[in-house]
Every structure is written in structure tokens, then in C-alpha cells.
TrEMBL record:
PROSITE patterns tied to this protein: ABC_TM1 (PS50928)
Residues of the ABC transmembrane type-1 domain: 80-269
Keywords from the named record: Cell membrane, Membrane, Transmembrane, Transmembrane helix, Transport
Matching Pfam families: BPD_transp_1
UniProt KW Iron-sulfur keyword: no
Organism in which the protein naturally occurs: Vibrio eleionomae
GO biological processes: transmembrane transport
CDD domains xref list: TM_PBP2
Family in the record: Belongs to the binding-protein-dependent transport system permease family.
Protein name: ABC transporter permease subunit
Cellular component terms (Gene Ontology): plasma membrane
Amino acid sequence: MNVQVIAKAQSPLMRMKPWLNISSLLCMFWLVIAIIGPWVTPYDVGKIVSHDIFAPISAQFPLGTDYLGRDMLSRMLVAARYTVGLALVASICASAIGTLIALMAVISPKTVEVVLLRIVDALISIPSKMLALVIVAGFGSSAQLLILTAIIGYAPGAFRIAYSLALNQHELEYVKVAMIRGESKFYIAVREILPNILNSVLADFGLRFVFIVLLLSGLSFLGLGIQPPNADLGSLVRENIGGLSQGAPALLAPAIAIGFLTVGVNLVIDRIARQRNQR
């Protein structure tokens, strides 16, 4: 009886726990920064506000100044929108496209399924970073092209995960029952198979987001990502690489921000996976 009382007393807290853990807070923090960041900058993002380059942390400049004397906090608040925004759009599109094509492959005739698999095999054999370098070097760099590059690079991986999950579900009895009832293939894919693979697809979506953040940051560090006067977190690291020997906050802050962003998303993915396994 006492155990039951304690369990009932703890149940509201347990229901709130997903919103109180550090991984959710980190993800929510970066999402809020991406939305409101440009409107809360203390200084104009491109304005030189100090003659002291690579200035240390101070009350006036909480993250110091960059290699030109611009306020680093202001630049990071704007750069976070590019990093989070581009990666979020690209990962949503890559996961959605990969999952939809996977469902189509599972319910399609064998010939269509084989053709789709061979096309995906060809795309997935190309390393994503090499593909991105070729596309950006050949067609230039823009936000739209970076998103398209990330989608082309990571949609095949999302397809492979969703296809293996959907194929397993397609062989189960509840799908056979739906076929006997005369349900359409579209209905079976969307109403029967998709809900049962959605948690795994969401976990894979989180991984795609992390991969794309690192891809876009790497391209920006090489000078092939977001171009000046705009910048993402990877661009800020590249711009301020001259402050490495001084341990300048202008270099350390964006690098740490990328780390916290990816760690937060990874922790959320791990939490989703644990909850799915417990069920």
C-alpha cells in the first residue's frame, strides 16, 4: 500500500520529467535563440564597437570581441539562427523525403522497389562531405544550395533506416489483415506502417540534424558555407582562428556552442530510444 502511495505521489513529477531534463532544456534554449536571437542583440551585428580586437569577457562585451572589434554576443545570436535554421530545415526535408520514398518502395511492385534501392545505394556510397564539397565548389554557396546539398547527402541514409523498419512492419499480421480488408496501399503505408515506425524515424531525424550541423559548420570553417556579411557558428570559428594562441572568447564561444547544441540533441535522441525500449 505504501509503495502504491509513493508511486502515485511521484507520478506527476515523472510526467513532468521529460521537460525538466538538461537535454530538453538545451534543445529548447537553442531553438529559442534561433527564433529571437536577431531581435535581442545588444549591438548591430556588423558594427565595430571596440578598438580592442579579441577583447576578453567583460560586462560590456559578455563574449568579448572578434577579430575586427565587433561584439561577439551579437554575432552569435544571429549566427545561431543560420546554424539551427538551416540544419533543422535540411534534416526535416531529408527525413521526410527518405521516409516517404521508403514507404513507397515497400508498397510498390518489386521492379520499382529494386530500382529505388539501386538509386539509393549509388547515392549513399558517396561520402556526404565529399558530395557537399563538389556541389558547393561547382555551383557556389547559398543558403538554398546548402540545404539542398544536405538533403541529397542525408536523405539516402534516412531512406535506408525507414525502409528496413517499414519492411519489417509490412510482414506483420496487422498489415496482412488490412490487405485482406481491401485497404489501399496508400492507407496501409500511412495509417498502418508509418505510426509504428515513427519513434524510430524521429530518433534518426535527431541524428540527421546533428550530422547536418557538423557538415554545415565544417563547410563554413573551410569558407564554403554561409558567406559574409552573414555567418553561422562555423563561420565564426573560421573568422576568429587568429585568436587561437590567445585563447580568445571569440574563438572558443562558437566552438563550445556547436558542442552544446550537438550534445543536447544527442541526449534527446538517447532519451527517445530508452523510452521506446521500455515500451
